[in-house]
Amino acid sequence: MKEFSAGFIGGGRIAKIMLGGLKSAGKLPGNIVVSDNNADVLNSLKAEYPAIVTALNDNTAPAAQDLVFVALHPPVMGALLSEIKAFLKPESIVVSLAPKLSIAKLSEMLGGFQRIARSIPNAPSIINEGYNPLAFSSALSPEEKDGLKEFFGYLGECPEVEEDTLEAYAIISAMGPTYLWFQLYELQTLAESFGISRDNASDAIKSMVIGTVDTIVRAGLSPAQVMDLIPVKPLMDDEAAIKEMYQKKLSGLYQKLKGGA
Fold first, then answer.
1. Does the pLDDT of residue 216 top 80, yes or no?
2. Yes or no: is domain 5-164 CATH 3.40.50.670?
C-alpha cells in the first residue's frame, strides 16, 4: 500500500491492538493521529509510540487523515460521525471497526460520504495472528480494496466477506478468544500445580490447541468421530450445560447486534 496517514478516533483497546500489530510487523504509518476523551489513554499510547500525534477531545484531527479508523462503540457513533463529516478529505477512507452499523447507515450519518469499509478486528492482531474480516463500500475501487487488504494483512488474515456476516464474525472471531482464555489460563495453573514448569505448560497447551483445531479441519472426520478419539472426557457431565450457555448467551447477543444493522 502506498504511503498514507492514519487517524484513530478512539485510543482504547482496538487502537492499541492495531498499533501493536503494525509495530510488530514494522509497518507503522509515518503519520498517525489518535484522539480520545481520556488523557491517560492518550498518554499511555504516546509513551509506547512516541511518534504518534495525540488529540485530546479533538476528533477532527484524525478525521483529516487518509485512513480514518473509527474505534468506538455503536451508541456514540451517530454524534461522532456528524461531528467529523465536514473534515474528511474527498479521497479519504473511513474504516469502521464496530459491529451493528451498516455501511449504508454509516454513510447516512456521514452526510452521504460513501468511501467506507468495515472490519471486525480481533485481539491476536497484536501479534500479527489476527482474523479481521473486511467488507467494502461499492464506492471503493479494486485497487483501494487491495490496499486495505494489504494493510490489514500485516495484522493477520483479512478475508473479504459479505457485510451482513460481520456481526456473526464479531461473535465468533472477535469475541471468541474470551471464551477460551480463562479456560486455558486455568489449565496452565493446574499444569503448574501438577509439577509442570510454566514454560513447558505453555508449550503443551499451545500445541494442544493448535492440534485440536487442525484435527477438526484436516482429519476428515465427523464431529462425533473427532470427539470419540479420546475416551476419557472429564467434563462430559457438564457439556450440555456449557452448550446451552453458548446458545443462550451468544445467540441473544447476535440478535441484539443485528437489530441495529
1. yes
2. no
